[in-house]
Amino acid sequence: MATKKTAKTPAAKAAPKKAAPAKKPAAPKAAKKPAAKKPEADDLFAAAAKPAPKKAAAKKAAAPKGTRVTFRVRAEVGSKVSLAGSFNGWDPAAKPMVDKDGTGEFACTLTLPKGRYEYKFVINGTWCADPECTDWVQNDMGTLNSVKVVD
């Protein structure tokens, strides 16, 4: 068996050796997690008997704070009745009232925050103050608006 010898030339001996590139420190190796074992039948029944862990309650959108206020007025059966006031920009189309029983008692319910509100009923196109309300104020038209205070 012959071995091969490589003769180094004087030029090769004189050439400086190249420095090896700096090595980055090795990142620590993560510990291996033990493989999860398959649950056995007894484990499944035991898990079913335990209550599920409580999840964080999902935050609900904050409901508008206010008080439910029902407005009622009597009018002829079959009338077109609506509620207009400072709470809806005095728009008679914004809150139509309903006669559920067909007896001529029209009603609607709003959720209003605390405050003072002026309103009128619009019955078949005629604007009317609430005859059951004892708190009225004069408006810019020279007529009366009913007043509802929500605490």
Detailed description of the structure:
The chain has 151 residues and is mainly beta. The protein has a domain at 67-150: Immunoglobulin-like, CATH 2.60.40. The protein is 9% helix and 28% strand. It has two helices and seven strands; from the N terminus they run ααβββββββ. It has helices spanning 10-14, 41-49, and strands spanning 67-74, 81-85, 105-112, 115-123, 126-128, 136-138, 144-150. Strands 2, 4, 5, 6 and 7 form a five-stranded antiparallel sheet that branches. Strand 4 (115-123) and strand 5 form a beta hairpin. The longest helix has 9 residues, at 41-49. The protein is extended. The model has no long low-confidence stretch (mean pLDDT 79).
Highest-level CATH class of the domain at 67-150: Mainly Beta
Distance between the termini: 110 Å
Low-confidence stretches: none
Succession of helices and strands: HHEEEEEEE
| Topology, number of strands | 7
User: In which range does the helix fraction lie?
Assistant: under 10%
Radius of gyration: 42 Å
Alpha-beta classification: mainly beta
Shape: extended
Work out the helix count.
Answer: 2
Largest sheet: 5 strands, antiparallel
Kindly report the CATH topology of the domain at 67-150.
Immunoglobulin-like
Q: Calculate the mean pLDDT score and round it.
A: 79
CATH architecture assignment name of the domain at 67-150? Sandwich
**Superfamily (CATH H level) name of the domain at 67-150:** Immunoglobulins
Q: Give the DSSP E fraction (strand runs of 2 or more residues).
A: 25-35%
